[in-house]
Structures are given as structure tokens and as C-alpha cells.
Specification:
There is one protein chain. This protein has three helices and seven strands; from the N terminus they run E-H-E-E-E-E-E-H-H-E.
């Protein structure tokens, strides 16, 4: 099964940023010892817009919007949740939203 993982909250302070990035690197490397297949994920940038039927407007992201995402494969959502539960953002007080992706192409 395919899943998208949204990382929300758990961001470090400016002083903790370097250590936090090392934690992420170690965690990503540890995924190689699990049953989950993954990509390295992508942090969100600072630029954002909202697109609607009324046009496009600039948008200032907040911590509630999340900090990045990752695409993974796992046998089940429970397996994915177990592995993702040790992510640095969880340890730092954040949360992860897992969503199953459909295999059908539109």
C-alpha cells in the first residue's frame, strides 16, 4: 500500500535546528532497517499561495500547515504508523498524518 505522510509541528528552535537535522538524518537512515519503503521526503518552502475560483492569493504558512511530507510503501496503515511513530517531529511534540494513496490513475 502507498501512503503520504504529512509532518505537522515538532519544529525545533533556531538554536536546536542543527541537532534536529542530525536527528532526521539518523532517523531516515534507520528506515532502511524497517519493512517500510520510502523516499527521503521534502520539507516545505516558505512561499505559498491559495488558488480558488476567485483567483490566486498569497498565503503565509503557519506551523499548523505542516513542515513537509514523505511518500512511503507499507503492508498496512498500522505498519506505517508504527514506523513513523519514531520520527523526530513526533519526539519533539509534533504529529504525523498518514493518508492512504489510491493505486488508480485518474
Amino acid at each position: 500500500m502507498k501512503f503520504i505522510v504529512f509532518f505537522v509541528g515538532g519544529e525545533p528552535t533556531k538554536e536546536e535546528k542543527d541537532e534536529h537535522m542530525l536527528e532526521w538524518k539518523k532517523w531516515i537512515e534507520s528506515l532502511g532497517n524497517t519493512s517500510v519503503e520510502y523516499n527521503n521526503g521534502y520539507p516545505y518552502g516558505q512561499k505559498a499561495v491559495i488558488v480558488s475560483s476567485k483567483g490566486t492569493n498569497t498565503y503565509k504558512p503557519s506551523g499548523n500547515d505542516g513542515s513537509g511530507y514523505m511518500l512511503i510503501r507499507a503492508e498496512s496503515i498500522d505498519d506505517a504508523a508504527e514506523v513513523m511513530g519514531s520520527a523526530p517531529s513526533i519526539v519533539n511534540g509534533g504529529k504525523i498524518i498518514l493518508r492512504e494513496l489510491m493505486d488508480k490513475k485518474m
